[in-house]
Design a protein that fits this description.
Largest sheet: none
Order of helices and strands: HHHHHHH
Shape: globular
Number of strands: 0
Oligomer: single chain
Number of domains: 1
Length: 187
């Protein structure tokens, strides 16, 4: 396995790990279902996107690279703003009552938003010298493990810091969107 594939897997997993940590911050408690959904959603999306990118090939690379950062930015900003709005509008309710941090639709959108850059990265996978399926599996498993760790760390911090962390989680998601946009438009 080329070192480049492992480094790519870790780099691609960072946004998903941060998003998973925000889910942990918001969770009143973690169930096995929540951990499974988080690791499968983020790991699965991170595996499927580069596979799709590799299969689409260089012919569509210009389209993907031209707009992937905008799509990720919009999705993460909308999700982050929604979290902040819910946190500020539900001042009298417990933090976890405002919304389920593991709502299936939310998890799918987060997984897609944090893995869009992997679509463009997938085009380069054949150049790394590792079999495509092995590369995709390494990316997916790495993301699943790191997002699970992020979820658990976020939950631990949530218990230490307090229950009203939706605003912080929303700001993290918006920050991720801005980071992706700036990285892709400045260089």
């Amino acid at each position: 396995m080329p070192l480049e594939v492992i480094l790519l897997a870790v780099a691609l997993a960072m946004d998903a790990t941060a998003a998973a940590a925000t889910r942990g911050l918001l969770a009143e408690r973690l169930r096995l279902r929540d951990v499974a959904l988080t690791t499968l959603a983020f790991g699965g999306a991170q595996a499927l996107m580069p596979l799709a990118g590799a299969l689409l090939g260089a012919a569509l690379c210009g389209y993907v690279e031209a707009c992937d950062h905008w799509v990720a930015f919009v999705l993460l900003t909308v999700l982050g703003a929604k979290m902040i709005r819910e946190a500020l509008s539900d001042r009298d309710e417990p933090a976890a009552a405002a919304t389920d941090p593991f709502a299936f639709t939310t998890m799918v959108w987060l997984a897609v938003a944090t893995s869009i850059d992997a679509l463009a990265a997938g085009v380069t996978l054949p150049l790394l010298g590792a079999p495509l399926i092995v590369s995709v599996a390494v990316i997916g498993v790495t993301t699943a493990i790191l997002s699970g760790a992020g979820l658990l760390l976020g939950r631990r911090l949530g218990r230490l810091i307090g229950a009203r962390l939706e605003v912080f989680g929303g700001l993290v998601l918006i920050g991720l969107g801005v980071k992706i946009l700036v990285e892709h438009t400045s260089g």
